[in-house]
Amino acid sequence: METITENIAPDSVISMNDSIDLENDTLYFLALLLARSMLKNGIVNKNEYAEIDTILRKKFRPFLADILS
Would you tell me which of 17, 25, 31, 33 could form a disulfide with 62, CB atoms 3.0–4.6 Å apart? Predict the structure, then answer.
């Protein structure tokens, strides 16, 4: 049996879709960080914060948000 010794991994490990997903996750978490700051400073209440989170999830469709929440 012959052993394969060459590198068979793709040149680009991160695909275009993965890059878009990562960007969406980053934008979602940055926007949520701002919303949390607004909540902490009394600019929005808990109900408004929850509404903001819902809107951000629909807009960015973050992959990691479901895993980390």
Answer: 25
